[in-house]
Structures are given as C-alpha cells and as structure tokens.
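Fresh eyes needed here. Kindly weigh in on this sequence plus structure tokens:
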Amino acid sequence: MTSLKSKLKEDLTEAIRARDELRSATLRLTLTAITKEEVAGTTPRVLSDDEVQKVIARESKKRREAAEAFAKGGRAEQAEREKAEGVLLDAYLPQQLSDEELGEIVAQAVSEAKAAGAEGPRAIGAVMKIVNPKVAGRADGGRVSAAVKRTLAG
C-alpha cells in the first residue's frame, strides 16, 4: 500500500473516532474512488502515490464543479459542503503554483519552443508538451492552457 493511501486510511480512522461526519464521508468517497481505479481494467493493481494524487485531484475538481453548479442552482448549503470537501481534499495534494511561478515556467517553455522552431498560436501544443511535465499536479490544466495562450498572444 502506498504511503498516501495509508495516510488517507489513518485519517479516516481518526475522523470516525472524532465523529467528524464531513471528513469521514469525504475520505470514504475518495478511498472508494482509489479502490475503483485499482480494480479497473483486466487485472487489479496497486496505485503509486502519483496515481493516488491524480485520483484525489480528480475528486477535488469534481467537488469544485459541483459547488459551482449548486451555487448557480440556488442551493447555497450544498455548495458550501462541496467547497469544504474540495478544501479537505486539497490538503492531500502538492502546493499549487502561484500565477507568477506558472508564468515563469510558461515563459521558459515558450522560449524553448521558439528555439525549436514553433511560432505563433500554433505553438500551443509544443509549449504544452514542455510545460505539463513540469507542473503536473501543481496547476490545473485550464490555468496552464490560459497562461500559455496569454504568453503566446503577447
């Protein structure tokens, strides 16, 4: 078992003992998503810490999107719960990059892509190939894409 998965299980046990309903429910759903990912496919496997982080990031993103949908639908109480679950899951993810740090990485990648011959808006794919491994798990894909487009545009 990976260290991140075992930490989630330990935290779940603590949450149950403390009768923290929000935390225990969120961790149960996340562990279920991890287990589902492990048994998906033809043969069961154990996920690495990086793969577990991807599952947690996906679950956190679902919570943010659900919170937005509930807020638009006028269900503020449910939106707040979803936001709280997302914040709880974000604690298990690596620290997100600030806009300045992301901008520096993107600028560096743009100069690398231009040196390789990529120019203008068509260079987005080349720049994304350089940027994505550097920011994996530390920046949302939408933020990265927007930063790349902004930098290439001007």
User: Anything to note?
Assistant: The mean pLDDT is 86.
